[in-house]
Write a structure and sequence with these properties.
The chain has 407 residues and is of the alpha/beta class. The protein contains 19 helices and 15 strands.
Length: 407
């Protein structure tokens, strides 16, 4: 199986500009490709995870990755998928975030001996002359066409600033600059970046008379169509100081039954033959699949040793033997309101808190977790359906647990 066929079989490819040419390049190790990362935080998160895995897969097949850090575009902010403007960051913050990204990327990509590059678009964007850009680049962009792009359309109702309107031009210029500097002939990105990516291929064609290619990666969505990688307390980070290896493991251990095999296919490096066999799994076997997913991804991000520790800790806490000996509580149907029960009531009804005020304090202080995932929202609702079957493990503090089910 070629690398391109494998990407298709894993469900990773969304849109391509020229499939035959892209196949020829990636299958023969001739692609010098880039993926951009805007430094909006001091850590990469699960949303970046699939892009990093794709870079690793393509590098293993002999292609050359360029990790582009958006030190320049970070001054502007990408309007895609947002209803408001990103907050402005200082140059010092942007540089710090760029440095943090590089350390994390080195776990996935081999930068030794020129096998991959890491570059910062601040190196060319910050020195551009505004009038020169208007004259040299402006004529190649149609405002009418730009306004039909999805990333702009969704912002038009609330208001799109001229600052953000320039983002597509800047990203297109990145591809143009990378093509000239490093022979970069291909761009990969999330499916929500398609319009920006086409802008780059078109700019190269118009300015240089050359062909360059773009491919978008399928967005990682759960079975409800929502982006994965978010919890009640925010993003799932790759930095162990922001999301511990145990919490990272637990996030994947707790994915829905409907999502686990898709995640294994898209994110792990397990052989497709093995995953095809797992497609037949059902019932309790899906819990085994979740353990495999959680272990594989934790090992990728934090190393084998941390993955083993997280797995052992989770098994000790949530194994069937331990769960059988764990204090349990049952919630009655009449305790539910519109099919849910609020977390404060759940803590009180299960005996983990004596009063509602004690329960509220425990939640606010970060001492409450459901199936290993911390919850800090005092208005958090637990769906009754989550309490069916095996139910949930509710934790208060370090040593107080209840296995809670619906009667």
């Amino acid at each position: 199986m070629t690398i391109y066929d494998e990407l298709v079989a894993r469900g990773l490819i969304a849109q391509v500009t020229d499939e035959e040419e892209i196949k020829e390049l990636v299958n023969n190790g001739k692609a010098t490709f880039y993926i951009g990362f805007d430094p909006t935080a001091d850590s990469l998160h699960v949303g970046h995870f699939m892009a990093l895995c794709l870079m690793k897969r393509l590098q293993m097949a002999g292609n050359k990755p360029i990790a582009l850090i958006g030190g320049g575009t970070g001054y502007i902010g990408d309007p895609s998928g947002r209803t408001d403007m990103r907050s402005m960051m200082t140059p010092e913050t942007i540089q710090h975030n760029c440095d943090c990204f590089k350390k994390q990327m080195e776990r996935f990509i081999d930068f030794s001996d020129g096998k991959a590059l890491m570059v910062n678009n601040a190196d060319w964007l910050l020195d551009l002359n505004y009038v020169d850009v208007l004259r040299e680049i402006g004529p190649h962009f149609s405002v009418n066409r730009m306004l039909t792009a999805e990333c702009y359309k969704q912002r038009m109702e609330k208001g799109l600033s001229f600052l953000e309107f320039n983002y597509m031009i800047m990203q297109s210029y990145d591809f143009y600059a990378l093509y000239q500097k490093y022979g970069c002939n291909m761009l990969f990105g999330g499916d929500d970046q398609w319009s920006n990516m086409l802008g780059g291929t078109e700019l190269i064609r118009r300015k240089l008379g050359k062909d360059a290619y773009a491919m978008t990666i399928t967005l990682l969505l759960n079975s409800e169509g929502k982006k994965m990688g978010k919890t009640q307390s925010g993003a799932v980070w790759l930095d162990p100081n922001k999301t511990s290896p145990f919490d990272f493991y637990q996030y994947w251990r707790n994915v829905a039954d409907a999502d686990v095999l898709k995640c294994i296919r898209m994110l792990t490096f397990l052989p497709l033959e093995q995953i095809d066999e797992m497609d037949k799994w059902e019932g309790s076997q899906l819990n085994q699949a979740k353990e495999i997913l959680a272990y594989e991804l934790t090992a990728l991000v934090h190393g084998e040793e941390e993955a083993k520790k997280a797995q052992e800790a989770a098994r000790a806490l949530f194994s069937s033997g331990n769960a059988a000996n764990m204090p349990s509580a049952q919630i009655q149907e009449e305790d539910l309101t519109d099919g849910n029960i609020d977390l404060i009531s759940l803590l009180v009804n299960s005996g983990l808190a004596n009063t509602r005020s004690e329960a509220r304090r425990a939640i606010e202080q970060g001492g409450v977790a459901i199936d290993g995932e911390k919850v800090t929202d005092i208005k958090f609702l637990v769906p009754g359906e989550k309490l069916q079957g095996e139910g949930i493990v509710l934790k208060k503090g370090k040593k107080n647990f209840r296995k809670i089910t619906l009667a």
